[in-house]
Write a structure and sequence with these properties.
With 371 residues, the chain is of the alpha+beta class. It has seven helices and 17 strands. The strands form four sheets. Strands 1-2-3-4-5-6-7-8 form an eight-stranded antiparallel β-barrel. Strands 9-10-11 form a three-stranded antiparallel β-sheet. β13 and β14 form a beta hairpin. The N and C termini lie far apart (55 Å). The relative contact order is 0.07. The N terminus is likely disordered.
Length: 371
């Protein structure tokens, strides 16, 4: 198979990229590190990407890179000032050796070899598992109890993670053992994912302090069957602009099912069919039924008016396009919906609460609980 891939790269090098990816572990002097090197080849052109982290911090450090005369050069250059460099050569069995330097004049030997991922087995959501270095980070995560809070007379235990700002909760002692056995692994997995996002939030402008994502989690609903909460984050991980967004969760305490808004609300029976697994059909449902009917319900509550001058006031809540894929949160009084605006008008993203009474007739018949 490797020979076939190599031949295809030779045959089509003028029109496609060939990529080699190296996942490495080793050391800078006595410090354990992990690194990913990506090599892209397009004809005679070669470009590189690289990122590494120390085992004791787990925070990504993105590196600029160059390959010349079989020497791999990597450097971190915040604010156009090089603070550290690697000079490495690849030897047999995809091992890399060389030296690391910093601006203080220190030089240490570097030795890297391919990661044996059998030492880092962990079940992850597909999105996070696609980045193999996340499997390594999971082995070294450490969660510590921080505080206990009470919501609807039930105990919630909040944990932090040692390496970064990442707080989240688990069900506490006065939940049933069945509830805890079903739900706490789900909550732990969410916490792991948010922690990985924080550790991976890195910029070429400065070293990560594990604080690039500022978030809050709010428990909004709880009864004997359902737990509702919202996670809101504002983040800047390099790039042109910072950003923010929220996600609502409604989890069945009995079986762990995480309900999406279409599992709860059906503005047309078409959303309850298997055809909705087709994205085109689903997108059509959202634009044809979901957005206009949701907006109609919202208008009955809030009486939106179209701005007289869009240039001065871009917050046009009468535009159906902003309601086709809103974020939402299930609360004690109803469901809050937040429209999605284009980047320049993101400040218009305000939440609007629809009481359950106005949503009852739209309840998805497959949703097993009353609104």
């Amino acid at each position: 198979m490797k020979k076939i891939v190599f031949i295809l790269c030779l045959l089509y090098s003028t029109i496609i990229f060939c990529q080699d990816t190296y996942y490495l572990e080793g050391s800078i002097a006595k410090s354990k590190i992990f690194m990913k090197i990506e090599v892209y080849k397009d004809g005679k052109e070669t470009s590189l990407n690289a990122v590494y982290f120390y085992q004791n911090s787990l925070k990504d450090i993105p590196l600029e890179a160059a390959l010349k005369n079989d020497t791999y050069t990597f450097f971190f250059k915040p604010n156009n000032v090089i603070t550290e460099k690697f000079y490495l050569k690849k030897s047999t069995n995809n091992r890399f050796e060389g030296s690391w330097y910093n601006t203080a004049g220190k030089q240490f030997p570097v030795q890297l070899q391919p990661i044996d991922f059998s030492n880092y087995k962990f079940k992850l959501d597909r999105y996070y598992a696609d980045e193999k270095l996340n499997l390594v980070k999971c082995k070294f995560l450490e969660f510590k109890k921080q505080k206990t809070t009470i919501y609807n007379n039930k105990e919630f235990i909040w944990y932090s993670e040692k390496h970064c700002d990442s707080d989240f909760f688990r069900l506490g002692s006065n939940f049933s053992e069945k509830n805890k056995a079903v739900i706490n692994p789900i909550l732990e997995n969410i916490h792991i994912q948010t922690t990985l996002a924080q550790l991976n939030c890195s910029s070429s402008f400065e070293y990560s302090e594990g604080k690039g994502i500022e978030g809050r989690t709010t428990i909004n609903f709880l009864n004997t069957n359902l737990l509702g909460f919202e996670m809101f984050s504002s983040y800047y991980c390099g790039g042109a602009h910072p950003d923010f967004g929220g996600s609502g969760y409604l989890i069945d305490l009995n079986n762990g099912k995480d309900y999406e808004i279409d599992d709860i609300i059906a503005f047309d029976k078409s959303v309850t069919t298997e055809e909705q697994s087709n994205f085109d059909n689903y997108s059509k449902y959202r634009s044809t039924y979901f957005a206009p009917k949701l907006l109609a319900v919202l208008n009955s509550e809030f009486h939106f008016e179209k701005p007289k001058n869009d240039d001065d006031d871009p917050c046009d809540y009468t535009n159906e396009e902003y309601w086709d894929f809103p974020s939402w949160s299930y609360t004690e009084k109803g469901i809050e919906f937040t429209p999605i605006f284009y980047r320049a008008a993101r400040s218009c993203e305000e939440s609007f609460l629809i009481p359950f009474e106005k949503l009852k007739k739209y309840k998805n018949p497959k949703f097993p609980y009353s609104l």
